[in-house]
Structure formats: C-alpha cells, structure tokens
Amino acid sequence: MRLYHVTLVGVNQLNAEKVLLTLALIAIVLAARYLLHYLLRIVRAFSWAQRFRFWGHQTINLVTAAFFIVALISIWVGPNAHLATVGGLVGAGVAFALQKFIIAIAGYVVILRGKTFSIGDRVIIGGVRGEVIALDFFQTTVLEMGQPPPIIDQADPAMWVMARQYTGRIVVVTNGIIFDEPVYNYSRDFPFLWEEIHVGIGYDDDYERAERILLEVARKHTIPIAEMTEQARRHLRHVYDLDPPSVEPRVYYEMTDNWVELSLRFIVPDRGIREIKDAMYRDILRAFRDAKISVASGTYDIVGFPPIRIDSMPAAPPEAQKRP
Q1: What is the tens place of the pLDDT at every residue in 2-60?
Q2: What is the pLDDT of residue 89?
Q3: Inside any domain, residue 302
Q4: Residue where one domain finishes, among candidates 185, 203, 238
Q5: Could you tell me the residue range of the domain that residue 198 belongs to?
Q6: Would residue 40 count as lying in a domain?
Q7: What does pTM read for this prediction?
Q8: Cα-Cα end-to-end distance for the chain
C-alpha cells in the first residue's frame, strides 16, 4: 500500500480490512459484554439472585472471551495458513512473555471449577482475611476484615480492628496465588465457627456455679444456631463423608498457679460473632455479680507490713553543744 508516494511495508488492502474487522469485533464484543452485565445488575435488589449474578457474570466473561478469540483467529488466519504452526509459534511467544498472566487465568479456572470460593464467601487468600466482593479473569477483590486479639499483633500489614469486622480496606489479590498458598474458606460448606470464652475463677469461689452460668448463657445464645447447623452437618457428611464434632456448648477446666480457668467452647455463625460474644459477656457479668462470683485477675492485695521500729537520735553531750 502506498501513502503519499511512500510504500508501507507489510500493509496492503487485505491487512487493512483485517484491522478494520478487528476493531469492529472489539467494539461489538465490548458492547455486548457491557449490555449483558447491565441486564444482570437489574436483579441486584433480590437477595436470592446473588449466586445467579455471580455465575452469570462469569459465564458472560468466558463466553465473550472465547467468542473474541475464535473470531480473531478467523480474521487473521487465512484458509491457506497452517493453523498448527501458527498457533504453536504464537502460543510459545505468549507463554514466555505472559507467564503471570496465564497463571492468573489458570487460577481463575481452578477457582470456578474447584469451587474454591465465590462472591460473598469469607476467606483468607494471599495472607488477606476478608469477604470476596469481586472476581475476574486475573484477580480477586477482597473487603478486608480485622483479626482477633491473640493474632492481631503479628498481623502484617497492621490491623486496628480487633474482631472479624470490616476495616474498610479493599485488597486485590492475583488469582495465581492459589497455586502457591492455601486458601481458608470460612463460609462455603460449613458457615459456622467454634469460638471460646476464657474466664478465671478464684480457688475459693464457686467455680461449679460459674460453669453452670457459662453453659446457660451459651445455650441461650446458641440454641437456634445449633438447630441451623444440622443441615450443614448433613451436607458435610454427604459431600466429604465427615461427621463434625458435637455443637453442644461445653466448659473445660484448667488449673493455673493463680486461679481456675474455665474455657467455654461454643459454635457461632460466620457473621455477627462480635455481637454474639458481646451479648454473652454482658449476661455473664450480670450473672456473676448476682452469684457473688468474682473474676480473677493479675492484681495483688497487700495483706501486711513487717514491723517498723523508729529509734530517736541520742542527745549530744554538753561539751559538744558549746561553741568554740
């Protein structure tokens, strides 16, 4: 092709038509993808449609991407070209230059096929704890949560929320991380967690009465949850042939140098844990106050002093009192 008496190497009418077709293809695919995603967003107001929207978005992404690749190959690979040779050369170059890119896409496929997690699940991925709010071909977006007090000091980056509640930070993690690090899912197949409350009771206090109070409070706040977990337990037995431990609250004793430590173990849903424990602590404090049970702590009472003797100074001799 000549432009102002200049011959453009490698550019002819056929290639120009292919470029125009490619641009038109890109515009059509983007427009169709945007329209389909917009139609899915219409059902956002319905809570039952969350899973449907998630899988709908992923299906749209996969179908449009596959259509674009096939159409692009059809435009640029002529009928006389050896498809295997062209594909091999192109594939080798792409695989070398875009290793991380390909690993991220492979991670995306594994996430969908292996049912690792989906939108709304609470996970730890790449060292980030939070709720999955978006997933695309290359990365997963997580709304970060805080850490419980025992591990908050070791958190990196630093945490300031001492519970599994949102910090406000949005973190993006590459999908390829699932091949290098484990993924912890808090809510997919068994959306419940075991929690513990530790209380120290003096050896002279009625720690058996304290145990009954702890169990009563736990049953008050976990009986509906225990009923809910039966369905989840049946699901675990059906999918993994796993029978989880009993969900009935229980108190464990431990003798220390200073007090009897009572550990209350109970089950809670994966959301709203801080609110449940707050209500339990309030009930425990009120019940302990009524039962005259004190909570042991690392304070000290001074119970006595050694005898103190004060000797008055003897009077100076008369001659020492005289001045020279």
Answers
A1: 555 445 555 566 767 777 888 888 888 888 888 887 777 776 555 556 666 767 777 88
A2: 53
A3: no
A4: 185
A5: 192-290
A6: yes
A7: 0.61
A8: 128
Give the C-alpha separation, 261 to 199, whole Å. 6
CA nearest 197: which of 175, 218, 224, 177?
A: 218
User: Is 320 inside any structural domain?
Assistant: no
pLDDT, residue 210, reads 93
Q: Which amino acid is at 18?
A: K
Tell me, yes or no, whether 199 and 264 share the same domain: yes
Which residues of the chain, if any, have pLDDT below 70?
Answer: 1-13, 15, 43-52, 54, 77-98, 149-158, 226-229, 244-245, 298-324
Last residue of a domain, one of 97, 113, 131: 97
Phi, psi of 91 (to 5 degrees): -65, -40
d(CA 8, CA 119): 50
pLDDT at 29: 85
